[in-house]
Amino acid sequence: MNKKIIFFNGPPRVGKDTLVTGLLSKFPTAQNIKFSTPLKLALPIFFGLSDKQIILLEQDKDTPRKYFLGKSWREVQISLSEDWAKLIFGKRVFGNITKNIIENDSDANIFLISDSGFQEEASAIVEQFGKENCLLIRLKREGTNFDNDSRSYWENIFDIKEITLYNDKSIEAGISKAQDIIIRWIERKF
Q: Mind listing the pLDDT tens digit for each residue in 102-145?
Protein backbone atom coordinates (compact mmCIF):
# COMPACT_ATOMS: atom_id res chain seq x y z
CA MET A 1 0.00 0.00 0.00
CA ASN A 2 1.24 3.51 -0.81
CA LYS A 3 1.83 5.82 2.10
CA LYS A 4 -1.32 7.82 2.82
CA ILE A 5 -1.03 11.31 4.27
CA ILE A 6 -3.93 13.09 5.97
CA PHE A 7 -3.60 16.79 6.74
CA PHE A 8 -5.70 18.15 9.62
CA ASN A 9 -6.13 21.88 9.08
CA GLY A 10 -7.89 24.06 11.63
CA PRO A 11 -7.41 26.78 14.21
CA PRO A 12 -6.10 26.32 17.75
CA ARG A 13 -8.47 24.47 20.11
CA VAL A 14 -10.55 22.99 17.28
CA GLY A 15 -9.54 19.48 18.38
CA LYS A 16 -6.87 18.41 15.87
CA ASP A 17 -4.60 16.63 18.35
CA THR A 18 -7.52 15.10 20.25
CA LEU A 19 -8.99 13.65 17.04
CA VAL A 20 -5.64 12.31 15.84
CA THR A 21 -4.90 10.72 19.22
CA GLY A 22 -8.26 8.94 19.07
CA LEU A 23 -7.70 7.87 15.47
CA LEU A 24 -4.39 6.19 16.30
CA SER A 25 -6.28 3.43 18.14
CA LYS A 26 -8.56 2.94 15.11
CA PHE A 27 -5.72 2.67 12.59
CA PRO A 28 -2.90 0.50 14.01
CA THR A 29 -0.56 1.26 11.09
CA ALA A 30 -0.99 5.03 11.47
CA GLN A 31 1.48 7.48 12.92
CA ASN A 32 0.89 11.00 14.20
CA ILE A 33 3.43 13.39 12.77
CA LYS A 34 3.70 17.14 13.19
CA PHE A 35 5.28 19.86 11.13
CA SER A 36 6.11 21.54 14.45
CA THR A 37 8.19 18.65 15.84
CA PRO A 38 11.56 20.30 15.09
CA LEU A 39 10.42 23.41 16.98
CA LYS A 40 9.18 21.41 19.94
CA LEU A 41 12.48 19.53 20.14
CA ALA A 42 14.73 22.61 19.79
CA LEU A 43 13.01 25.09 22.12
CA PRO A 44 13.19 23.05 25.35
CA ILE A 45 16.95 22.68 24.85
CA PHE A 46 17.33 26.39 24.13
CA PHE A 47 15.34 27.42 27.20
CA GLY A 48 16.54 24.56 29.45
CA LEU A 49 13.07 23.12 30.05
CA SER A 50 12.34 19.83 31.79
CA ASP A 51 9.97 17.20 30.38
CA LYS A 52 7.49 18.11 33.13
CA GLN A 53 7.58 21.79 32.13
CA ILE A 54 6.99 20.89 28.47
CA ILE A 55 3.90 18.84 29.36
CA LEU A 56 2.50 21.76 31.34
CA LEU A 57 3.28 24.20 28.52
CA GLU A 58 1.46 22.04 25.98
CA GLN A 59 -1.64 22.26 28.19
CA ASP A 60 -1.49 26.06 28.37
CA LYS A 61 0.21 27.37 25.24
CA ASP A 62 -1.04 30.95 25.39
CA THR A 63 0.02 32.23 28.83
CA PRO A 64 3.11 34.47 28.83
CA ARG A 65 5.94 32.95 30.90
CA LYS A 66 8.91 34.51 32.66
CA TYR A 67 11.32 31.91 31.26
CA PHE A 68 10.26 33.02 27.76
CA LEU A 69 10.88 36.65 28.70
CA GLY A 70 7.17 37.42 28.75
CA LYS A 71 6.21 35.41 25.65
CA SER A 72 3.93 32.35 25.52
CA TRP A 73 4.91 28.84 24.39
CA ARG A 74 2.90 29.41 21.19
CA GLU A 75 4.60 32.77 20.56
CA VAL A 76 8.15 31.40 20.90
CA GLN A 77 7.34 28.51 18.55
CA ILE A 78 5.89 30.92 15.99
CA SER A 79 8.92 33.20 16.33
CA LEU A 80 11.45 30.39 15.81
CA SER A 81 9.46 29.21 12.80
CA GLU A 82 8.72 32.53 11.11
CA ASP A 83 11.66 34.70 12.21
CA TRP A 84 14.43 32.15 11.77
CA ALA A 85 13.72 28.74 10.18
CA LYS A 86 11.62 29.93 7.24
CA LEU A 87 13.85 32.94 6.62
CA ILE A 88 16.99 30.79 6.48
CA PHE A 89 15.67 27.57 4.87
CA GLY A 90 12.55 28.73 3.01
CA LYS A 91 8.82 28.45 3.63
CA ARG A 92 8.79 24.71 2.86
CA VAL A 93 11.39 23.82 5.54
CA PHE A 94 9.00 21.96 7.87
CA GLY A 95 7.32 20.21 4.95
CA ASN A 96 10.71 19.04 3.67
CA ILE A 97 11.74 17.76 7.11
CA THR A 98 8.41 15.94 7.50
CA LYS A 99 8.69 14.49 3.98
CA ASN A 100 12.07 12.99 4.92
CA ILE A 101 10.63 11.49 8.12
CA ILE A 102 7.75 9.89 6.20
CA GLU A 103 10.06 8.54 3.49
CA ASN A 104 12.27 6.87 6.10
CA ASP A 105 9.44 5.30 8.12
CA SER A 106 9.05 1.71 6.99
CA ASP A 107 6.44 0.70 9.58
CA ALA A 108 3.57 3.15 9.16
CA ASN A 109 1.49 3.49 6.01
CA ILE A 110 -0.92 6.19 7.22
CA PHE A 111 0.45 9.51 8.45
CA LEU A 112 -1.85 11.87 10.34
CA ILE A 113 -0.43 15.40 10.26
CA SER A 114 -2.28 17.12 13.08
CA ASP A 115 -0.89 20.65 12.68
CA SER A 116 -1.17 21.52 9.00
CA GLY A 117 -1.55 25.27 8.73
CA PHE A 118 0.62 26.30 5.76
CA GLN A 119 0.13 25.49 2.10
CA GLU A 120 3.90 25.62 1.50
CA GLU A 121 4.53 22.84 4.04
CA ALA A 122 1.82 20.65 2.50
CA SER A 123 3.24 21.21 -1.00
CA ALA A 124 6.45 19.31 -0.20
CA ILE A 125 4.37 16.32 0.93
CA VAL A 126 1.88 16.36 -1.96
CA GLU A 127 4.67 16.66 -4.55
CA GLN A 128 6.55 13.71 -3.06
CA PHE A 129 3.68 11.28 -2.42
CA GLY A 130 1.12 12.37 -5.04
CA LYS A 131 -2.26 14.04 -4.72
CA GLU A 132 -4.03 10.66 -4.87
CA ASN A 133 -2.32 9.71 -1.58
CA CYS A 134 -3.16 12.92 0.28
CA LEU A 135 -6.37 13.99 2.03
CA LEU A 136 -7.18 17.37 3.57
CA ILE A 137 -9.57 17.40 6.53
CA ARG A 138 -10.51 20.94 7.51
CA LEU A 139 -11.76 21.17 11.07
CA LYS A 140 -14.20 23.82 12.23
CA ARG A 141 -15.77 24.50 15.59
CA GLU A 142 -17.81 27.46 16.77
CA GLY A 143 -15.72 29.89 18.81
CA THR A 144 -12.35 28.96 17.26
CA ASN A 145 -10.29 31.07 14.87
CA PHE A 146 -6.73 31.77 13.77
CA ASP A 147 -6.40 35.06 15.70
CA ASN A 148 -2.88 35.34 17.22
CA ASP A 149 -1.67 32.37 15.17
CA SER A 150 0.54 32.33 12.08
CA ARG A 151 -1.38 29.40 10.55
CA SER A 152 -4.57 29.55 8.52
CA TYR A 153 -6.96 27.51 6.41
CA TRP A 154 -4.74 26.98 3.39
CA GLU A 155 -5.93 27.01 -0.19
CA ASN A 156 -6.08 23.56 -1.76
CA ILE A 157 -4.23 24.37 -4.99
CA PHE A 158 -3.12 20.73 -5.26
CA ASP A 159 -6.58 19.37 -6.07
CA ILE A 160 -6.31 16.75 -3.33
CA LYS A 161 -9.47 15.28 -1.83
CA GLU A 162 -10.84 17.65 0.77
CA ILE A 163 -13.61 17.51 3.33
CA THR A 164 -14.76 19.82 6.13
CA LEU A 165 -15.53 18.23 9.48
CA TYR A 166 -17.52 20.26 11.98
CA ASN A 167 -16.04 19.11 15.28
CA ASP A 168 -18.85 20.43 17.45
CA LYS A 169 -20.16 17.30 19.18
CA SER A 170 -18.48 14.92 21.63
CA ILE A 171 -14.89 13.75 21.25
CA GLU A 172 -16.15 10.26 20.39
CA ALA A 173 -18.46 11.64 17.69
CA GLY A 174 -15.61 13.62 16.12
CA ILE A 175 -13.30 10.60 16.11
CA SER A 176 -16.05 8.45 14.59
CA LYS A 177 -16.75 11.01 11.84
CA ALA A 178 -13.04 11.33 11.04
CA GLN A 179 -12.60 7.54 11.01
CA ASP A 180 -15.49 7.16 8.56
CA ILE A 181 -14.05 9.87 6.29
CA ILE A 182 -10.62 8.22 6.25
CA ILE A 183 -12.00 4.72 5.56
CA ARG A 184 -14.16 6.00 2.69
CA TRP A 185 -11.17 7.90 1.24
CA ILE A 186 -8.82 4.89 1.48
CA GLU A 187 -11.46 2.72 -0.17
CA ARG A 188 -11.91 5.44 -2.83
CA LYS A 189 -15.60 5.88 -2.01
CA PHE A 190 -15.55 9.67 -2.30
A: 999 888 999 999 999 999 999 999 999 999 999 999 999 999 99
Asked if 164 and 181 touch (Cβ cutoff 8 Å), the reply is no
CATH T-level fold of 4-36+109-186: Rossmann fold (3.40.50)
pTM: 0.91
Closest CA to 165 of 20, 2, 3, 24: 20
SS3 content of the chain, % helix, strand, coil (to 5): 50, 15, 35
CB atoms within 10 A of CB 128: 18
**CATH 3.40.50.300: which residues of the chain?**
4-36+109-186
